[in-house]
Design brief:
Order of helices and strands: HHHHHHHHHHHHHHHHHHHHHHHH
Shape: globular
Largest sheet: none
Strand content: under 5%
Number of domains: 2
Radius of gyration: 23 Å
Number of helices: 24
Oligomer: single chain
Length: about 500
């Protein structure tokens, strides 16, 4: 019998996994940025965006749909095996079609032909995404395994990077290393598949039952990708590799922080889908309210801090050559909050309740806004124009989803309080600004970020404890008390 872990345990595991996505780029991105320079970095960013599109079509929205579908039948091995096999059949057929189109594109698109070697190597991501069945492991809430195996391959990627990436022309090698680091663990996922489902064909397949929701999820993924990847591709085509490189420096920081903010949401989808399937509505509302509070509590200070210290962040992570990326980072940072909220409203509330069509509507509207603004602003403003388009798109998505869920949000609004978070931010901002202006004027970027981040987030967390903010009191205070007890015992 599979042991069900608590949401807290799953969150901790996923937080560690997401934190690794923060720590490893901390190590790799400054090195790679200085070696590959804006042009080489722009090639990697553009190739990643292109492969993401092909992979997205190949996966057809399965990464999200698969979690919901498998979570609903995870207590029945035969039904789970049939569901997984049916989804893999669809996934496999689409992957063959995508590789055919990809091969043709390499021949007919001049820009793709120029970077054929890089695109071919990175295209292995498409195949590995299929055999990795990461959606099954997420549905079964196997976050301990997912975290450990991912950390191993991320560490391997760092080692390979330092061993083989030494020159600007090594961008192709680095592209291969990113594949190993990001999806290399999927080989082990495939090898362990027999531990959870029956590998022999179970028969009585009904592939058609998955088609309609998968199409909706696929359309949703495509629309979302317009404002998460198209900006980089459009920058590359309109403004060149250099502007794409500057933009990637700003987006890299935003992406890392977004992953941290959405750590909780990632572990909630299988559990919330399970609650809906079992009719546990009160548990569903309670957890949704908790998730919204958590995301807001974390995203607000993160957004504000990195807008304040965008210059130091860019110079530390990417180098002085990327200073033109600073305005773009300031513009795009509020999307950390917007993405965090839309992740809860759309992915964790609407999707488990079969509201994926509403999510699709919201991301289509956001995608249209982003496309229009990109066309208008990128030719004039380059990377900053792309950042404005993304910011507007993410805000529109949250707004539309909030309107759709207005009745549900009224039911849980008593548990959602934003005033303590704002009040805690004000003194944190003031002290951090004073520190930078008066004490750390001549300090290096690392020292400024190290000192101000400790002070900023320390003040913020301390004030929340004084306010007896529920989430802080429930999760942070017990750990602080345990640390103090252990310290006293040692003394």
């Amino acid at each position: 019998m599979r042991k069900e872990r608590s949401v807290t345990f799953n969150f901790i595991m996923n937080f560690i996994l997401t934190a690794s996505s923060f720590i490893f780029p901390f190590i790799t991105f400054p090195y790679v940025s200085r070696i590959l320079l804006p042009v080489g970095n722009g090639k990697i960013a553009s190739a990643t965006a292109v492969i993401t599109y092909f992979s997205m079509v190949s996966m057809l929205g399965i990464p999200t749909y698969g979690i919901r579908a498998c979570a609903q039948v995870r207590d029945d091995k035969e039904r789970l095996s049939r569901t997984v096999q049916e989804i893999l059949i669809i996934n496999g057929v689409m992957t063959i079609i995508v590789y055919i189109v990809f091969a043709i594109s390499l021949q007919v698109v001049p820009k793709f032909a120029q970077d054929r070697a890089l695109l071919l190597i990175m295209s292995t991501t498409i195949f590995l995404n299929v055999i990795g069945v990461s959606w099954l492991y997420a549905a079964l809430e196997e976050y301990a395994y997912i975290t450990i195996i991912s950390l191993v391959f991320k560490l391997l990627g760092v080692i390979l990077m330092f061993l083989f990436v030494h020159d600007q022309q090594d961008y192709v090698i680095y592209g291969g290393i990113t594949v190993i680091s990001n999806v290399g663990s999927y080989v082990f996922n495939f090898l362990r598949l027999g531990n959870y489902i029956t590998l022999k064909p179970v028969g009585n397949y009904n592939v058609k039952r998955h088609w309609k929701p998968i199409v909706v999820f696929c359309a949703m993924t495509i629309a979302t990708s317009i404002y998460t990847n198209l900006d980089t591709v459009m920058l590359n085509f309109i403004s060149g590799d250099e502007q794409a490189g500057y933009y990637s420096a700003a987006v890299k920081v935003k992406t890392i922080l977004t992953g941290l903010v959405t750590s909780l949401g990632a572990v909630l989808l299988p559990r919330l889908s399970y609650y809906i399937e079992k009719g546990m509505k009160e548990e569903f509302r309670r957890m949704a309210s908790y998730a919204l509070c958590f995301v807001t509590m974390i995203a607000l200070p993160v957004t504000v801090y990195f807008m304040m210290f965008a210059g130091e962040s860019v110079r530390l992570f990417s180098g002085v050559a990327y200073e033109p990326a600073i305005p773009s980072m300031c513009i795009i940072m509020p999307t950390v909050l917007f993405i965090g909220l839309s992740n809860i409203l759309g992915m964790q509330i609407l999707i488990p309740t079969d509201g994926e069509k509403k999510v699709l509507e919201s991301v289509i509207i956001g995608g249209i806004v982003d496309l229009i603004l990109n066309l208008l602003l990128i030719p004039r403003m380059g990377a900053a124009g792309a950042a404005i388009g993304t910011l507007a798109a993410e805000f529109v998505v949250v707004l539309v989803q909030a309107v759709v869920l207005r009745d549900f949000l009224k039911k849980i609004q008593k548990g959602f309080r934003i005033v303590p978070y704002i009040l805690a931010l004000l003194p944190a901002i003031a002290v951090a600004v004073i520190l930078r202006m008066l004490v750390l004027q001549t300090a290096g970027n690392f020292l400024i970020l190290a000192v101000t981040s400790v002070v900023f987030f320390g003040i913020y967390g301390g004030i929340l404890l004084l306010f007896h903010e529920p989430i802080t009191m429930e999760f942070v205070l017990p750990y602080v008390q345990k640390m103090l007890i252990r310290r006293n015992q040692k003394q």
